[in-house]
Amino acid sequence: MTEPTVMPVVLPDSPAELLAAADAIAVKLGSAVWPAVTEDELLAGARLLERVRARQEGVAAQLFTEINDRCAYSRDGFTHPMTWLAKGLRLGRPEAKKRYRRAEKIARLTAPTGQSLQPQFPGTAEAVADGAIRGAHVDEIGDVMRRLPWKLSGQVAEQAEIDLAAMARALTPHELRKAAIALLAYLDPDGPCRMRKTAAANARCI
């Protein structure tokens, strides 16, 4: 099935103008007449919308990183970026913690010299930018990267992140977790990784 065909659109360069345009598009979509759309177009539209949502997670991570670096949250009366996410944006603390951790992994950072640095997880960041994976995938990749044994070389760890990001493009977060467990077992066969059953009867490496 193909994606909907659209005419090229000239977009502004200003981030503020782009966000305003995205908001206007969302409002317009909210009143769209879906019965006039074919079934194939509906399915293609759903896939396209999910890709847009995934890409927006990358945008949100980059925007938050800029707000954090410049302490812009203080203009809203907050003293910590996590509190601003939780209360200022009304996300609640659990979601705020997820957003904070995701931004640490997929956002571009700025060196003290002003140089733009690649994300901590470049493969994951690229997959998010492509609209191929969502925040839940990023969480799973971050979890397994945290569990990699310290004895592994930096090159092996970097390749593991790239491999996980590649697998995430074709897997659900739960399926990715299973694949990650297998990867951990391969990289550290004598390590402390073991399986246990969760309340939902899912296997997780602890």
TrEMBL record:
<dbReference type="InterPro" id="IPR003870">
    <property type="entry name" value="DUF222"/>
</dbReference>
<feature type="domain" description="DUF222">
    <location>
        <begin position="49"/>
        <end position="199"/>
    </location>
</feature>
<dbReference type="Pfam" id="PF02720">
    <property type="entry name" value="DUF222"/>
</dbReference>
<protein>
    <recommendedName>
        <fullName>DUF222 domain-containing protein</fullName>
    </recommendedName>
</protein>
